[in-house]
């Protein structure tokens, strides 16, 4: 096929993505309970908390917690949604904060004030014809479940999750058609705190608790798929995985094999269970090698087999390059997902390697393997932005990044991949998940809020705002022209 002939499908779902804990603020309003994100400090210390064992999940009054205030979407959602509508969003990916609906996670009845808040948000979106795409659990669970149950270590959490899922499906069945279960479920292999609600204990072998918690999440995810299909006919529910193709550093077969093994366990393990409905054949040897023994109860495997996701939501930020023996090689310092430096790639200000071709590769690999629709629900460039004296923000670097990734998606469609849509990450500036910074900005919309907590919260349109509007208006045809205001 001639590559330039490829077009995005007519019904392609263009939009932007955020998560409740990184933007809502109002951390104690509307009856909300504390959640994991509320106890994660801002700045460099957050990375330490995520990577090192033994975190205590307590708030320290001397520290700054940026997620408490976020960007105040809780009060400013109307203004923000109007801006999304101005860009022409067809969809808006957001998450529901579990701790707004069940403040402690264990209540028998949902919190009406929390439910009413999301009713208002969905109604506002629909006012502009924007469809919500909702992540049920995005790096956020009630802190009480973390402290009393050890998060997803405990099987009991499945019951609490099921109650939460039933409550939101029941309430929003007429308002939400696109759902996803766990954000970046596979991220737990590198930092279980945010997605699984526990810290590895000092001296504890990490694999056993992480894979047991995965099993609990797989069961919970299948229960959610089952409930969604029963309660909301016509709705689609997906998984959400970080997708990062793993390249071998060179053509030494030992390194190729190593890269393949890393890729299987990181990129495919969760997808295999959630999409194919069974543990992959490579799991047995992996479990044996790492002394992992899973508590799988009667009926679990049948449930997982029978209730599989309809599509794969994925985040894509970088590829990984791996070598078995890394002695003497530069590692990628900012890269949470490990890997060695790839000499062919440039990196962002935070050291994340920029690789649009990797997106085309990963979309092809996922589609070859699973043959279900794919949805890129996160992708973007975290960068420092400068507000000029005249108020303009000339983020050409972001436009370049997004353009090259959108081109890569278009080529993947030309390759035969069934791609549903694209919601770029952090369409409005928000708190970074890994570093708790405001200065790591992804948005088309600038928010005047800074790492020390100062700022007016004023919203300002960046150059990329106008550019993305043009992309959506032309259904991805106008990628090269940058549109000035
Ligand atoms: C994904 C998460 O890992 O990447 C988001 O789903 C996150 O929550 C995004 O914000 C970008 O990462 P960061 O650390 O730059 O905010």
UniProtKB/TrEMBL annotation:
Catalytic activity reported: 6-phospho-beta-D-glucosyl-(1->4)-D-glucose + H2O = D-glucose 6-phosphate + D-glucose
Enzyme Commission code: 3.2.1.86
Q: Which residues form the active site?
A: 378 (nucleophile)
Query: What biological process terms from GO does the record include?
Result: carbohydrate catabolic process
This entry's Gene Ontology molecular function terms read: 6-phospho-beta-glucosidase activity
| InterPro entries associated with the record | GH, GH_1_N_CS, Glyco_hydro_1, Glyco_hydro_1_AS
Q: What is one term from the GO cellular component aspect held by the record?
A: cytosol
Which keywords describe this protein according to UniProt?
Glycosidase, Hydrolase
Family (UniProt): Belongs to the glycosyl hydrolase 1 family.
UniProt-recorded name of the protein: 6-phospho-beta-glucosidase
**Source organism of this protein record:** Bacillus sonorensis L12
């Amino acid at each position: 096929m001639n590559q330039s002939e490829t077009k995005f499908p007519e019904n392609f779902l263009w939009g932007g993505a955020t998560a409740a804990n990184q933007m809502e603020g109002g951390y104690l309003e509307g009856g909300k309970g504390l959640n994991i994100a509320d106890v994660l400090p801002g700045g460099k210390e957050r990375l330490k908390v995520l990577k090192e064992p033994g975190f205590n999940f307590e708030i320290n009054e001397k520290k700054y917690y940026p997620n408490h205030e976020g960007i105040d979407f809780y009060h400013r959602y109307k203004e923000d949604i109007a801006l999304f509508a101005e860009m022409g969003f067809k969809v808006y990916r957001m998450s529901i904060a579990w701790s707004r609906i069940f403040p402690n996670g264990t209540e028998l009845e949902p919190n009406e004030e929390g439910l009413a808040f999301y009713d208002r948000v969905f109604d506002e979106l629909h006012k502009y014809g924007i469809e919500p795409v909702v992540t049920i659990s995005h790096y956020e669970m009630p802190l009480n479940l973390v402290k009393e149950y050890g998060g997803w270590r405990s099987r009991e959490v499945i019951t609490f999750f099921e109650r939460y899922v039933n409550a939101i499906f029941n309430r929003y069945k007429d308002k939400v058609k696109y759902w996803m279960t766990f954000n970046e479920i596979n991220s737990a292999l590198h930092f279980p705190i945010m997605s699984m609600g526990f810290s590895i204990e000092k001296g504890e072998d990490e694999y056993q608790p992480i894979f047991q918690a995965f099993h609990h999440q797989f069961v919970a995810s299948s229960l959610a798929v089952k409930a969604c299909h029963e309660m909301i006919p016509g709705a689609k529910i997906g998984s959400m995985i970080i997708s990062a193709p793993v390249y071998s550093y060179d053509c030494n077969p030992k390194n190729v094999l190593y890269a393949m093994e890393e890729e299987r366990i990181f990129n495919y393990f969760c997808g295999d269970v959630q999409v194919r409905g069974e543990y992959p054949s490579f799991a047995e040897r992996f479990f044996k090698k790492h002394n992992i023994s899973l508590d799988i109860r009667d009926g679990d495997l049948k449930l997982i087999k029978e209730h599989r996701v309809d599509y794969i939501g994925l985040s894509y930020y970088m590829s990984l390059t791996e070598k078995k023996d890394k002695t003497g090689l530069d590692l990628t310092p900012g890269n949470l997902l490990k890997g060695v430096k790839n000499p062919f790639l440039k990196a962002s200000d935070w050291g994340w390697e920029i690789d649009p071709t990797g997106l085309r590769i990963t979309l092809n690999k996922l589609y070859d393997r699973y043959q279900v629709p794919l949805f890129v629900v996160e992708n973007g460039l975290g960068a420092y932005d400068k507000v000029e004296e005249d108020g303009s923000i000339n983020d050409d670097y972001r436009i370049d990044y997004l353009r090259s990734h959108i081109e890569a998606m278009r080529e993947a469609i030309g390759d035969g991949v069934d791609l549903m849509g694209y919601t770029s990450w952090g369409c409005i500036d928000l708190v970074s998940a890994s570093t708790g910074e405001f200065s790591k900005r992804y948005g088309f919309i600038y928010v005047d809020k800074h790492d020390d907590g100062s700022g007016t919260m004023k919203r300002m349109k960046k150059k990329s705002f106008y550019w993305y509007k043009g992309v959506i208006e032309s259904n991805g045809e106008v990628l090269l022209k940058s549109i000035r205001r």
